Amino acid sequence: MIIFFVSCTNKVGNQLVTMTEKMAVGSNSFVLSDSLYRSENSRLTKYLLTFSNHSEEGEDLFRFIKAKREKNNLIKNYSEALFLDDSVSVASSSFALGEFFQYNLAQDSSYYYYNKSALYYRGIKNKEHLQRTYLSLSILLCDRGIFQEAELYLDDAITLNNKNISVYTSYAQIHVMGMVKLGLEEYDKAIECFNQANFLLDNVEIKDQYNDYQIALNKLAIKNYLARAYISKHEYDIADVITNTALIDVNFLKEEDKGLFLPLLLNKKVRVKLRTEKYKEALGYITKLLEVDKRLGNEYSLNLDYILYAEYFFRTGDITKARQYVDKALVSARKYNDLLTQKKALELLLIYDKENINANFYSYKEVNERINHSNNTVRSSFAKLKYESDSLVTSIELLKNQYFIIVTVSTTVVLVLLGVLIFIVFRNKAKEINMVQMYQKDTEKYYDSIIHIQNKVNAVQEIERKKFAKELHDGVLNKLFVTRFSLQQLEEEGLQSAKDMLANEVQEVETFIRHSSQALLNEDKFLVSDFKQLIEELVMLQNRSKNTYFSCFIDTKLDLEILSHRVKVNIYRILQEAFQNVQKYAEASACVLELVYVSETTFTIVIHDNGKGFDVKTIKKGLGLKNMGDRLHAINSKLAIDSKEGVGTVISFDILLI
After folding, report:
1. How many CA atoms lie within 13 A of 259 on its CB side?
2. Where do the Signal transduction histidine kinase subgroup 3 dimerisation and phosphoacceptor domain residues begin and end (predicted)?
3. How far apart are CA 330 and CA 335, in angstroms?
């Protein structure tokens, strides 16, 4: 439902572009085909929406709207406003887009842009336009049957009223309140609202907004709503009088407006006559109503006409014809997925078709559940759109609020104090980090000195090995070879056995020395002594920092001394890096190192803390983790990390003993 007064502008000084200057309307929209506009409220108010005091009464309104449509590019205006960060322009262009989509029945988009407009108007404290936006949101929600939420927006609009509220604004609010109360089935309050609205239309000031013809259209719309309310209250005599006067007023309308109001008023006339059992008069009005709807091509109204025909025949006893018309309405309604018409038809069958009451009841229940589901879906959709719209503007409002706070003296003082506090905290943190780094460097120097000494010893031993091997090969082996050769040359009798024995012995010595020489030349193992003690000392060094307590557990089954020098060095460096990360980032109170025996060929190293943890998937890996991974890759292992925010972190890797 879109009420017509939203688009109207004041004759004096109102610079906002009216709806008629902005909207894009096709010929079908202008004719208002009933297959598009299902609700009675839309049918009455959508066409009136195009009126404003900017158009002459005799002008062809369709050509006027179409011309204005070609001159405007709402999306372009909106994009430019966003680019320029112009809150006023964003608010007005968002409202214009909301009206555009509301007019063209894209109600989700309309709701989104209205909410965005409201947020910006609230941010720039423009109460007049914020009030208008709340009113538009109330109308939009009424059109979707969400009356409780519509009432909330209308209350927000009324809250913004000032002492000098105009007659037009009062009329607009009371008119929409009547719509809300009618939807909530509070018929007495709805009647009271429409009577007040009708009274305001007689006020001279209302002519600042509407001409005489537009006032007449508003009065006719109010009569239609009053008739509907009285019919719902079963006060048919009053409804009959109202519809009689309204049908007289219709004769003075333009042809296109007759097509809008006449079917609605005839429908109510038929319902009054049927309820008061004046069947002959009812048949006459039904026949006339059917002719009008066929001429206008109102598919939805035709289905309602068939239901009225069916009720007439049910009441007059022609059950066969009644069922034919109900079936005709149901087939068409199902074709267009018109649940409300299906519900009305099934309600009629439940009352009069007693033979098929069970089947009709289940069909009615199914349709009603689908209607409720559709309404809930609409509510959820609007709630989601409001949330998305609010989120988009929240950041802008936050920046503006922060700017306002910054320029005040009191906030400046607070920011200065906060800055000093942050400086102290970060300075202390930097000191702690520097101390940890200093301890790490001391540890590295200590271990580096050990490695350096071991490397020197290794180099000296290597030189001595090669020298010894060379002497064995070039000296002793050559001499033994000559001796064996000489012995083999002896030919005197009696010496043969001695010669063979000596030759064998010398050959055995030669073989032994050769094997020993090769073993010395190929030896590349060098073990850091007492590697377990080095690890324990590294853990104890970490406890110089009081923030985190480090402890160590080494399985007694493990013999770490069989590891190669290269493996030991890599393990030590990895442990250093892991402990440093715990000190820097974990904010843990405890950290445990475990070397766990797995099998004769494998053991596992595990480091776990109870710190703040992190998201393994999103954390950016630094140089430390990369170095740890590279060192493990060099010894045929792989780093595993498991961390949960608020729980702690566990890193582990396997080491081969062979």
Report:
1. 14
2. 464-518
3. 8
Kindly write down the DSSP assignment for every residue of 586-625, as one continuous string.
I--SEEEEEEEEEETTEEEEEEEE-S----TTTPPP-HHH
Tokens of 611: 């710190």
CA 146 to the chain's CA centroid = 24
User: How many Cβ atoms sit within 10 Å of the Cβ of residue 636?
Assistant: 10
* Helical (H) or strand (E) element with 409: helix 409-471
pLDDT tens-digit map of 174-190? 988 998 999 898 999 99
Give domain status of residue 119, yes or no: no
Domain count, the chain: 2
Cα-based distances in Å from 129 to 97, 117, 165: 15, 9, 13
Retrieve residue 157's tokens. 């609009």
Q: Can you give the pLDDT at residue 361?
A: 84
My answer on whether 534 and 639 are in the same domain is yes
Helices 127-143 and 107-123: crossing angle in degrees, nearest 10, is 160
Give whole-number Cα distances, 284 to 157, 299, 463, in Å.
45, 20, 125
CA distance 658 to 417: 61
Structure confidence at residue 454 (pLDDT): 66
pLDDT tens digits for range 299-348: 778 888 888 888 888 888 888 898 888 888 888 888 888 788 888 888 88
Shared-domain flag, residues 540 and 597 = yes
Residues 532 and 515 in one domain: no
* Co-location of 588 and 612 in the same domain: yes
Burial 316-344 (b: 16+ CB within 10 A, else e): beeeeebbebbebbbebbeeeebbbbbbb
State how far the Cα of 17 lies from the Cα of 102, in Å rounded to an integer.
16
Assess whether 650 and 574 both reside in one domain: yes
Q: Which one of 505, 526, 547 terminates a domain?
A: 526
Question: Both 508 and 536 in a single domain?
Answer: no
In a domain, 236, yes or no: no
Q: How far apart are CA 261 and CA 278, in angstroms?
A: 23
Q: What average pLDDT does the structure give for the chain?
A: 76
Same domain flag for 563 and 474: no
Look at residue 179 and tell me if it is in a domain.
Answer: no
Q: Assign 635 to helix, strand or coil.
A: coil
Please enumerate in sequence order all residues whose Cβ is within 8 A of that of 122, keeping only pairs 6 or more positions apart, or say none.
130
- Cα distance between residue 51 and residue 43, in whole Å: 15
Domain with 494 in it? 421-526
Using only C-alpha atoms, the chain has a radius of gyration, in whole angstroms, of 47
The Cα 592–Cα 578 span in angstroms is 11
Q: What's residue 465's pLDDT? A: 66
More confident residue, 597 or 493: 597
> 573: how many CB neighbours lie within 10 A of its CB?
15
Q: What is the DSSP letter of 493?
A: T
Please report, for the domain that includes residue 533, its CATH number. 3.30.565.10
User: Could you read off the pLDDT of 118-132 as tens digits, one per residue?
Assistant: 888 888 888 888 888
Beta bridge partners of 594: 553, 606
Q: How many helices (H) and strands (E) does the chain have?
A: 25, 5
Q: How far apart are CA 581 and CA 625, in angstroms?
A: 9
C-alpha dihedral sign at 516, 521, 524, 527 = positive
DSSP 125: T
